[in-house]
Amino acid sequence: MKGNEIIKGRGAQHQVSNRFLELSYEMRDDFLNYCASEGEEAVDSRTTFIDTFPRTIVNKVTSPDVGLEFSLNPYQGCEHGCVYCYARNSHEYWGYGPGLDFEQKILVKRNSVELLEKKLRSKNWQAAPIILSGNTDCYQPIERKLKITRQLLQVFLKYKHPVGIITKNALIQRDIDILQELAKDNLVRVNLSITSLDEKTRQLLEPRTASIKKRLQTIEKLHERGIPVNVMMAPIIPSINSHEILPLVKEIAERGACGVGYTVVRLNGAIGEVFSTWIRKTMPDRAEKVLHQIAECHSGNLNDSRFGTRMKGDGNIADQVAQQFAIARKKYLSGRERPALNRALHEQYKDGQMKLF
């Protein structure tokens, strides 16, 4: 693989060393030359799946500006390969790198279903929305085979417990039968991520995600079945998708979305290196402009960890983005509401069936 050659089907374009490990990873020129002379691939692009058996599965979210109480991630690492993904840094805590490792080494929590059921049956547990995919997508490609997310939804339905879902994969359509039953009691809300209406942009930013066409169809199908779906235009990246705010909100409103949210891209930790390398390879003509504009949204830094401003940014560009969303919501989504999820039923179903007395 030559230094400027794009690794197809992946977001990250190189391995990134784990900051917590003593050893680091380096791609040497002599190794690249050897691979070229032997006709071998320098980078193994295959995905491997690693079974894990955690002791707990429901995580309390303490960040004050995330808007979640609890999250559940049946998978760690994500084959979708979104180059901007904030979850890349968390892969270092598992002993892997946030670059290609994040996309190629997927940890599968095999006992997720058993742990969730144990949690929901606990006498001390009080119903609160649990969000699937607070970190990595619960409908990434391996879910088609393993069906862990589908089994988790069956548990939420059995115990009449509120659940939220964040995904950018049309595979969620497979589980519409369960989602529809949950929606009858206002126990589910779907957040579908759509970053752009342009398929070429999608392919560059999110190489292994569902197409834009399929995601728009997913909004329609969920809406038709009475399943509330909100769209997250996340993240907004200046000079890449920032010009699409009004047309995107118009499109999702016509498909039946009940609301829209957004974040401004921030490149914390190793993500700055992953994103910078990627954009200089894929968009060399505007790379420096984009990076400078991202920094302008975060007081001159690519990295922004300030609670209260990190998600939306500050400065002129961030203000313009906020104004565009305010106009878009007023013009296309006025009067649409997202009712709070129902917490009242679970206590009656803690043993898996309704208590009659």
Architecture overview:
Keywords: Iron, Iron-sulfur, Metal-binding. This is PA0069 family radical SAM protein. With 357 residues, this protein is an alpha/beta fold. α6 links the parallel β7 and β8. The strands form two sheets. It has a seven-stranded mixed β-sheet with strand order 2-3-6-7-8-9-10. Strands 1-5-4 form a three-stranded mixed β-sheet. The protein has a single domain, classed as Alpha-Beta Horseshoe (pyruvate-formate lyase- activating enzyme), CATH 3.80.30.30. It is 33% helix and 13% strand. The model has no long low-confidence stretch (mean pLDDT 90). α5 runs parallel beside α6 and α9 runs parallel beside α12. It contains twelve helices and ten strands.
For the CA atoms, what is the radius of gyration? 21 Å
What is the third-level CATH name, the topology?
A: pyruvate-formate lyase- activating enzyme
Q: How many distinct beta strands?
A: 10
Main sheet: strands, sense, barrel = 7 strands, mixed
Shape: globular
What is the number of domains?
Answer: 1
From the 3D coordinates, which CATH architecture would you assign? Alpha-Beta Horseshoe
Alpha-carbon distance between the two ends = 68 Å
Order of H and E elements? HEEEEHEHEHHEHEHHEHEHHH
The low-confidence parts are none
Which sequence of strands runs across the widest sheet? 2-3-6-7-8-9-10
Structural class: alpha/beta
- Note the beta-strand portion: 5-15%
> How many helices does DSSP assign?
12
Keywords: Iron, Iron-sulfur, Metal-binding
Pfam family, one: Radical_SAM
InterPro entries: Elp3/MiaA/NifB-like_rSAM (IPR006638), MJ0683-like (IPR040086), rSAM (IPR007197), rSAM_sf (IPR058240)
Organism: Salinimicrobium gaetbulicola
